[in-house]
Amino acid sequence: MVQDGSTVSIEPLQETHLFRVQLLINMHLSTVAPGWGLPETVIAKCLSRNPYQETTDPWVRERVTLCALQKQRVVAAAHLLRYGDGPEVNPYYQNVGDLACSLAWPNAGEAAATLLVRCSSPVRCLGSHSRVCLGRWGTGPSICWCTVLST
Predict the structure, then answer these.
(1) What pTM was computed for the model?
(2) What 3-state class would DSSP assign to 145?
(3) What is d(CA 96, CA 131) in angstroms, rounded to the nearest whole number?
(4) What is the mean pLDDT of the chain?
(5) How far apart are CA 132 and CA 145, in angstroms?
(6) Which residues is 97 bridged to in the sheet?
(7) Of 22, 81, 90, 142, which shows the fewest CB atoms inside 10 Å?
(8) How far from the centroid of its chain's Cα atoms is residue 52's Cα?
(9) Residues near 128 by Cβ (< 8 Å), separated by ≥ 6?
(10) Taking 70 as the threshold, does the pLDDT of residue 144 lie above it?
């Protein structure tokens, strides 16, 4: 439960955050497919390398997962990718920063907004020429956020 007025801190994903990230992911997943959920091991594996994305995953040079915490609890999370610039990378993906996925608890709007603002900085710091948000911003099962940010 998120309380109004509590301080939001943004931290890179730590192993201790994984259980709460799992709860967040599974809450969103269960609204689409009741009873479904992902174990921590699958989530951790997909954050370190996505074996289910055979085309674009090999192009990823860097990955960062950020967590928004209130009262030491994860209330929002975002996964950022930076694609390489080698000849094997599709030209549309070369040196692009991608907000691949981000989720928040429905009552964590302030934390979600803080995280979204912060997400543009790591992508810029990763040295990307452009930042493209190809993913979704979810604070509920039907909300999808997709845009291109100018540099």
Answers:
(1) 0.77
(2) coil
(3) 6
(4) 79
(5) 12
(6) 82, 131
(7) 142
(8) 17
(9) 82, 95, 96, 97, 151
(10) no
Place of tokens 């609890």: 73
Chain position carrying tokens 């709460």: 20
Q: Give the span between the Cα atoms of 103 and 75, in whole angstroms.
A: 8
Give me 93's structure tokens.
């993906």
Residues 62, 80: Cα–Cα separation, whole Å: 8
Dist CA 32 CA 41 (whole Å): 21
Under DSSP, is residue 111 helix (H, G, I), strand (E, B) or coil? helix
- What is the 8-class DSSP label of residue 7? P
Give the CATH class of 8-149.
alpha beta
Question: What pLDDT was estimated at residue 5?
Answer: 53
Angle separating helix axes 18-32 and 40-48, nearest 10 degrees: 100
